[in-house]
């Protein structure tokens, strides 16, 4: 099983969910972020007590951005050929099998990943339930 190349501690400065201004007051205003644009808007003018706006300073460190807790970065794989791209980057990126991949193709991807020494984050997904279903039908 591969180990990550450089496992730096991920520092989260502020865990903040930026909600749309006045989304807490009106049901018609969804909480998904939109930049305030009104000429008299308190939030846009950054008055004291107004909700905070997203700024570049909230961004994480470049070295640890998009890094999973296990130290790898995600790379979505749809087929076995996509897995070959990770051959030289198996200590930086971990494969994640895409949602729409069938159980048969998942099995082939996981087997090839073991040969290439590539970590698969969701290696057991959809394989356990398929095998459990086969066992249940054969014993009954």
Describe this structure in words.
This protein is α+β, with helices and mostly antiparallel strands. The chain is built from 3 helices and 2 strands; from the N terminus they run βαβαα. Helix 1 (80-83) links the parallel strand 1 and strand 2. It has a two-stranded parallel ribbon. The two termini are 37 Å apart. The protein is elongated, with a radius of gyration of 22 Å.
Shape category: elongated
Number of discrete helical segments: 3
The stretches of 5 or more residues where confidence is low (pLDDT under 50) are none
Largest sheet: 2 strands, parallel
The gist of it:
This protein has helices spanning 80-83, 103-116, 127-139, and strands spanning 73-77, 93-97. By secondary structure, the protein is of the alpha+beta class.
Key features?
140 residues; two-stranded parallel sheet
Give the SSE map.
Elements: E1 73-77, H1 80-83, E2 93-97, H2 103-116, H3 127-139
Parallel strand pairs: 1-2
């Amino acid at each position: 099983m591969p180990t990550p190349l450089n496992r730096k501690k991920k520092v989260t400065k502020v865990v903040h969910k930026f909600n749309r201004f006045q989304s807490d007051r009106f049901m018609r205003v969804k909480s998904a972020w939109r930049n305030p644009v009104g000429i008299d808007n308190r939030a846009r003018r950054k008055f004291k007590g107004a909700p905070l706006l997203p700024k570049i300073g909230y961004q994480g460190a470049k070295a640890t951005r998009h890094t999973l807790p296990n130290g790898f970065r995600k790379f979505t794989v749809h087929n076995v050929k996509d897995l070959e791209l990770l051959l030289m980057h198996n200590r930086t990126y971990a494969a994640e099998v895409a949602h729409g991949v069938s159980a048969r193709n998942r099995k082939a991807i996981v087997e090839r990943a073991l040969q290439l020494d590539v970590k698969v984050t969701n290696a057991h997904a959809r394989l356990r339930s398929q095998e459990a279903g086969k066992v249940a039908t054969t014993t009954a």
